[in-house]
Every structure is written in C-alpha cells, then in structure tokens.
Amino acid sequence: MSFTNFHLYYDDVxxxxxxxxxxxxxxxxxxxxxxxMSGDFNPIHIDHEFAATTPFRRPIAHGxxxxxxxxxxxxxxxxxxxxxxxxxxxxxxxxPVYIGDTLRVRSEVLHKEPRGRGRRGVVTWKRQIFKQDKxxxxxxxxxxxxxxxxxxxxxxxEASAAADENGA
Length: 168
Fold this sequence. Notes:
Elements: E1 18-20, E2 24-25, H1 28-38, H2 43-46, H3 48-51, H4 63-74, E3 82-93, E4 102-115, E5 120-131, E6 136-147, H5 156-165
Antiparallel strand pairs: 1-4, 2-4, 3-6, 4-5, 5-6
C-alpha cells in the first residue's frame, strides 16, 4: 500500500489533536497465531485448563499482541505518512485482554519536532488502547518519523484550504 491524498503529512497535524480508531475484536485465532509467530507459548495464553487456575480464570491475549493490534488500529487514526517508529516510552499494561474483547485506539499529538528542513518531522503521540467497556488496557508514548511537505510548512487549516483549492 502506498500513501494517498488521504494520508496526512507532518504539517497537517497540531499538538492537542486526537483521533479514535475503529474497533477490532481479539479472537482465539489471533492468540494462537501470535504464539506461533512469536514463539511465546506461555500456557496463560493458549491452555484453557491452565488459565482457569490463574487469577484471570481464562486465557489472556499476549501483551505484545495487543500492542501490535493497537499499532495497526492507529494506522488510520489518523492516517499519517509514517516513515518509521522511532521510540516507545512509558508503556503500561493496565487490564488483561480476553478472547472476544474489542479494542479501540485513541491517539493524541503531544509534541512535534521538524526535521530535514520540513521534509519530515518527529511526532510524539499519546496512545491509549481501550476495551469495549471503556477500560484502559494499555497506554504509552510513541515517537514516529512522518513525511513532511518539503519545506512548505502549513498549519492544518492552511493545508485543508490548499487541498480544497486544488480539488483534493
């Protein structure tokens, strides 16, 4: 998939803006596939009988599976011209995620730092992963490198007006 006119540049977002993703339900297949891909066959994730003896009483999704699904959900909340993830800071795991839980991601711009004379910039995000009951499952700070407009720095309003003028 390549970037489209729908994807935002570094210049198009402002500190304080936030978005919420669509939902994604975690399935048993997700957990089994992640165990196979990662090699993490901890019985807390894949053994129903063992999991019944734990405080969770049933299998839980891998924390890194939830983080990965959150990353995917954040891809379109908002749709950015992301070039790289640079850093993950202060990541916290608050609530277990079970088979059947539906996740949503809330993304908020905390900070922006231009790089490369406007050809790109670093965006600092607060990312929160919520379950269907609004309980916070995970949260933390991520830094991403995002494509810029190449030296022409526009505010989000100016970029929108320019897009309207160009028929985009």
